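$ run holo --ligand "iron/sulfur cluster" --emit C-alpha cells
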Amino acid sequence: MIPAAELERVYERPESLTALHTNYCPGCTHGVAHRLLAEALDELDLREQTILVAPVGCAVFAYEYFNLDGCEAAHGRAPAMATGIKRLLPDRTVLTYQGDGDLASIGIAEIIHAAARGEAITTIFVNNAIYGMTGGQMAPTSLPNQRTTSSPSGRDVALTGQPLRVSEMLATLPGAAYVVRRSLHDPANIRKAKKAILTAIQVQQRGLGFSMVELLSTCPTNWGMTPADALTWVKDHMLSIYPLGDYKVSDAARELSA
Amino acid sequence: MAKELLKGNVAIAEASVRAGCRAYFGYPITPQTELLEYLSSRMIALGRVFLQAESEVAAINMVYGAACTGARVMTSSSSPGFSLMQEGLSYIAASDLPCVVVDVMRGGPGLGNILPSQGDYFQVTRSAGHGDYHPIVLAPATVQEAIDMTVLAFDLADHYRHLVILALDGLIGQMMEPAELPEWQADLPTPDWAVTGAANRAPNRITSMHLRADESEAYNQHIQRRLERIRAAEQRSIEMYTDDAELLVIGFGSAGRIAASAVEMAREDGLNVGLFRPQTLYPFPSERLAELAEQVGACLVVEMNAGQMLDDVRLAVNGRAPVEFFGRMGGAIPLPEEILDTIEMLCWSLHVVE
Ligand SMILES: Cc1ncc(C[n+]2csc(CCOP(=O)(O)OP(=O)(O)O)c2C)c(N)n1
Ligand code: SF4
Ligand SMILES: [Mg+2]
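-- output --
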C-alpha cells in the first residue's frame, strides 16, 4: 500500500456538483456536460453566486445534480425564466441548461428574444439531435434521414425541413456576445468545450451580452448504439451538419477568449 | 391621501408600485394595455424592473423566474393572453410562489372583441392551467376596490405563498373614477426559500416536479390543506338590503355593480330585493350565501357571460331557494332596466306562488 502521505488527490468531484447519482443512461454525454459546467463554476469561484435554470428533457433534474441554487423551467421557457431571475439579481450568474427539443423547437422564441435583448445569461445547449426524454422522437435538429420513433423511415427533409442550426441563427443578433459550437465526442474536443464554457460565463460576468455554448452530444439509448459508436456517430455524421466553431465573438468577448 | 380621478388600469399599476411590486413583465393587449404602458416608465424611474416580453408565454415565465428570487412580481393581460399563460400559472402555483396576475377580461371566445366581459370566470376560478388547484381570485367592482384589492392581492400571495388573480373587465379597467391610492409599503425581507445563490447555506431549489406518486400526492395534499385554510379565512362579499330581501340578486364585478343600480330602482318601486356581491371568486363566499339562501324566496344571478358563477351559486344555495339567471355575453353590457324587468317578473311570480 502507498503511504497516505505520498497520495496526491488529482481528480475529485467538483464542489458545484452534488453526490447524487444521475438518471442519465450509461455513456450519455449529458454527464460530461454537467462535469464541465461544474468545473468551470468552481474555477471561477462562482458556485455561491450562481442560479441554474434546468430544462424539461433528460436534464430535468439538473437542479438536483448541481450544488447550486436552481429552478426547473417549463419546456422551452428556461431563457424567459432566467431573464426574470437575472433582471432581479443582475450581479448573479444565471445559467440555462437546455436540450435541442427544449431550445430549438418549443422554446425557439424565448432563446431568440433572450439573445436579441442581449440578456446577460449563459446557455449550455446540449444538441443530441433527438428528443431523448420522451423516447427518441425527431427534433428540429435531427439529421436528414435520421431514424427516430417519429420518423421511422428517416427524417424526410421534403416534409419536415432541414436541421435547424441555432448557433448560426443566434450569431446574427447584435445582443449575442459569444455563441460557439463545440463537441463532446473526444477528449480534445471536451477540453475545448470546457474552455468555451469558461469564456461564456466570463462574458456574462462582464455584462457583455448573451452567451451560449452549443455542445454536440450523444443519446446512445435512443440512437440505438453503444456509447462508443455514438461518439463515432457524432464525428462521422453530426460534425458535417453542425460544424464546430465560433459563430459570434463580440470584440469585447474576444479579449476574454484570447 | 386625497382622492384623485384615476383610470382603473392605471390605478392598479400605481397601487402595485406602492405595494412593493419589484418587477413587471407583460405583453400588450386591449383592454389592459394602459397598465403595461404606465409601468413602462414608472418602474424604470423607480429603478425597478419593467420588461415587455415577446409573448404572454414568455411574460409569465419571466414572472415565474422573478418570483423565484422572492420579490413581489406581477403581470397583466386580457383573456386571449391569459389563456396563453395557463401552463406558466400552473407551474407557479405548483412551486408555492407568491405572484399576482391581472386579467382584464374581454369578449370571447376566440379573438372575440375588446369589450367588457366576465367570460373567464371558469378559467380563473377552476384552476388557471392544468392540475388540481385554485388560485385566489379577487373581483373588484370599482376603481377604489381595484386599488385596495391590488394591495390585498400582494399580501395574500405572500401570506399563503399562492397565486392571486385580480379578475376584472374592461369597464373597470378603462373607467375613470375618484379614488384614493394606498400608502407606500416598506420593502419586505427576502424569504429564506428564494434562489439568490447558495452562499453560506444549502442550495434552494424551486421545482414543480414530484416524480413519485406518493411524493406527488403528498404535495397535492399540501396544496389542498392550504386551500382549505384559504376557504376558511378569505371568503369576502358585500351586501345591500339583505335584511328583509325576498329576492337576492347576485353578481360580481361590473355585473354586480350594475345589478346594484337595478336593486336600488327595485327598492324605489317598493320591492324587497337585496344584493350579494362576491368579492372573492375563489374562495367563493359560499358560507354567507348559504345563510342568505335560507331567508330569501329566490336568487337571481346576473353575469356578463352565459352563466359561470351560476354554478358556484347553485352549489352554495344547494336547493334552499330557486336560482334564476340573467346574462349578457360577448361584450354586451346588461342595462339596469333589463335587470329590473327580470327582478319585477321574479318578485311577481314569488307572490303569485304564495
Ligand atoms: C409543454 C410540454 N410539451 C411536451 C413535453 C414532453 N417532453 C418532455 S421532454 C421533451 C423533449 C426533450 O428533448 P430535448 O430538449 O432534446 O432534451 P433531451 O432529453 O434530448 O436531452 C418533450 C417533448 C412537456 N414536458 N411539456
Ligand atoms: S435518453 Fe439519451 S439523452 Fe437521455 S439520458 Fe439516455 S442517453 Fe442521455
Ligand atoms: Mg435532445
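-- notes --
Chain A touches chain B through 35 residues (CB under 8 Å).
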